# Entry
Amino acid sequence: MDADNAPNITLRRLGPHDAGRLTAASDLFDAPITEAGAREFLTRPGHHLLLAEDSDGRAVGFVSGVETAHPDKGTEMFLYELAVAEGWRRRGVASHLVNALAEIAREGGCYGMWTAAEQGNEAALATYRSTGARLEPGTTLVVYDLA
# Structure
């Protein structure tokens, strides 16, 4: 998949054999990725990860998504995380990643896609708006720390 609005970017949908490629992209994530962690994510059904790579094959962004199903609603895609390397921001990379994940969701029969963003994260909110998201007023993110 080539990005129309992000020059020299290729999107790569990772699969079970791409754990090494994912660990090489650790600097885009909150914490270093282990080979075991990469394999676990990439082999789980309904887990998706797309890397944006520059013309030299270096990862410059990613989006991850997880399909969630409920007995009375069907299946939807949870956009788990989105990140773009600082030098590649504001060039359409994030929007292209989000749109590609939405296409995977459509192809998989998902009825919708959702995520959460921190209030004040204007870059993320702008990306989501530009890709057709509706921001729900008055929502609150509730988090349980189970560790």
Remarks:
- The longest strand covers residues 59-70.
- The mean pLDDT is 93.
- The beta strands are 10-13, 47-53, 59-70, 74-84, 113-114.
- Helices lie at 19-24, 35-43, 93-107, 122-130.
